[in-house]
Amino acid sequence: MSGTSMATPHVSGVAALLKGLHPDWSPAALRSAIVTTASAYDNVGDVILDEQKQRASLFDIGGGHITPQAAADPGLVYEMNATDYGAFLCNVLAGPHDDIQDLIGDQGLNCSTLPAGVQGFQLNYPSIVVPANTTVQRTLTRVGPADGGETYYLFVYMRDPSVKVNVSPRTLEFSNPGDKQIFLVSGEYQGKNKTVEGVLIWNTAHHQINTRMVVHI
Questions:
Q1: Taking a C-beta distance cutoff of 8 angstroms, is the pair 104, 82 a contact?
Q2: In this predicted model, what pLDDT tens digit does every residue of 72-82 receive, in sequence order?
Q3: Which residues contact 186 (CB under 8 A, 6 or more apart)?
Q4: CA 49 – CA 54 distance, rounded (Å)
């Protein structure tokens, strides 16, 4: 009735439908569209609960409850390519690279020529983890519509308001499909050892990009 055994075929089906609508989208764009348009509420409008009937954390629900109609027109996506994945894999599997080279060699990549030291939080993933004393960068790519520009305005919600999240810039302007904009995220807290969940939202009149976020101070 619930869990990954049910989520996997549903999400796979949505991904297939999105690929039919947007055959030029990469796997990363498909994932981003599904994750960033998902809802924190279930199919009857209630807050999603965990197995103990408590409010579920982001580690339980990920992006949330998928909304395929919104995913078909997300406005923006977090794009990634083989080079991004390759650099990350070369770092986390540091040492002899024979095995990893077998994985990335078909893409014409080599660990010796890829950026060094890439960590998970640096990947252009559609969720954000902000480690202590760290500024995290994300890049958003416009995937539509083609008629006219759009300006996205920022809203940040943290479950614990004592943790302050700094985002720069606080507006993003796009003119054409394919345009890219970068933003930076960091956290502040007057204390130590605190992990807080939240969401970073980019809004227009027609689109809402929900980026789930965990800040560790």
A1: yes
A2: 999 999 999 99
A3: 130, 134, 135, 136, 165, 166
A4: 5
